Amino acid sequence: MKKFGILLLITLLTYSLYSAEKPFKIERLNCDFKGIVSNGTNTICYGNYGILTFSLDSGKSWKQLNIGEKNSLNRIKTSGFSFIGITDNSLIKSTDNGLNWSIKKVTDAPMFIDMTLLDNSIYILTKNSIILSDTNLNISQNPLLILDSNSKYSEIETDGNNLFFIQNRKFLLKYNLINQTLDTIDLIKDFDCTFCTSVSGIKVKEGLIYIQLNRTVSGGLNTSYFLQSSDQGKSWQKLTSNISNSSCYNIIDNKIFFMQAIPKGDPSHNRLLVNGYFMIDSSHYHIDASYITQVNVNEKITKYIYFDKNINYQDFLLINKDIIISVGNNNMISVSENGGKSFEFKSFFTGFMMDLIIFIN
Hints:
The protein is mainly beta. The protein contains two helices and 29 strands. Strands 17, 18, 19, 20 and 21 form a five-stranded antiparallel sheet that branches. Strands 1-2-3-4 form a four-stranded antiparallel sheet, with no helix packed on it. A four-stranded antiparallel sheet has the order 5-6-7-8, with no helix packed on it. It is globular and about 55 Å long. It starts with a helix and ends in a 14-residue tail after the last strand.
């Protein structure tokens, strides 16, 4: 079979040389997903190389759409039934469930980092400013806020009154949309956190603001505290002690859930990649890890994928009370149809066509 495939490939390439025509179109398959979003009809996984992988049946089957390989998709959100997002240098929008996209190029250089939506306004975090656009992709001529171009910025979220974003991975900045004031919150200093190196993972849910305070301990192990603020970032409380590999998290019914790609098997052999879906009782602070519960107790190995420590989940979404879809790098998509008790890999790309698992219906 392999010999036949090689012979067929040589024949096609030879034909191409003599005919001066391409016998087939090569499309990129692999994508590192950055996030997942749904408008209730279409669920879209998005990432680099302009690749949108979408499902119109709540994760049972998947199709792929490419809006241009140079368009790295940094964020997509919903505005009503429309999808609105950003690439490195453009605004994008779809009004037909993500099947067709308008692309408005704003800059030649890659400047856009992240975005958030508030009513009919799009707040775009760039390398040196925050700019404002409406949902029709009309950008204001003047920046809302000019930032220090010598700093690096990441993530932006809003609670309706403020914009929260991160500077140099260490400081949480709060810009008040009413008073137009900018405050710097040094959570590492405020919590006197030994070995803490960064903050990340801003989320806003029902008026509460969540963030992770990250530290590196001996052996290079990365762990995080979850922090919460109920007064627009003026004060913070610690919800958890150190938890490892919990960056892919969401808030569901006032509880913290996080998703991991974890190894299973004998450490002395090639271990398999399996899913870990955990819940944290964040009603009050616990000093140990006894408050962490693994939800996917019915997990079974149905696809044989070798574990790689560089494979991680980036985002997951609760479609309804039963269906949860998780995405990560290497085209990784996992779907649970029983409220997180078990997950099934729907897509994964290993780099070897013989081991390719993609768009399994």
